[in-house]
């Protein structure tokens, strides 16, 4: 059984880097969605996709969703 106190400094750094690269794309995608205009309920759908699918949702938004934004 492994206790939290037995995790060394290198493991903490790896965990923090992994969490950082997991959360940052999600936050960037959510900010971009909320700042942009979409047709109908597309904005709500993309917010839900990014929130529920996290990294995969952010990747989907950057590959598919950005093309659906309305231009002013």
Characterization of the model:
It is built from 2 helices and no strands. By secondary structure, the protein is an all-alpha fold. The longest helix is centred in the first third of the chain and has 27 residues.
Descriptive terms for the model:
mainly alpha, about 70 residues, 2 helices
Give the helix/strand layout:
Blueprint: H1 9-35, H2 42-63
Helix pairs in contact: 1-2
The string of secondary-structure elements, in order, is HH
Low-confidence spans: pLDDT under 50, at least 5 residues?
A: none
* Shape, per Cα inertia axes: elongated
Distance between the termini: 57 Å
Structural class: mainly alpha
Helix content: 55-70%
- Give the C-alpha Rg: 17 Å
**What's the story with the biggest beta sheet?**
none
User: What is the tally of helical segments?
Assistant: 2
| Percentage of β-strand residues | under 5%
On the 0-100 scale, what is the average pLDDT? 89
């Amino acid at each position: 059984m492994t206790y939290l106190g037995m995790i060394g400094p290198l493991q903490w750094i790896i965990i923090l880097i992994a969490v950082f690269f997991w959360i940052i794309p999600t936050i960037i995608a959510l900010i971009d969605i909320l700042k942009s205009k979409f047709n109908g309920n597309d904005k709500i759908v993309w917010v839900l996709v990014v929130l529920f699918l996290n990294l995969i949702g952010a990747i989907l938004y950057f590959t598919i969703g950005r093309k659906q934004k309305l231009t002013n």
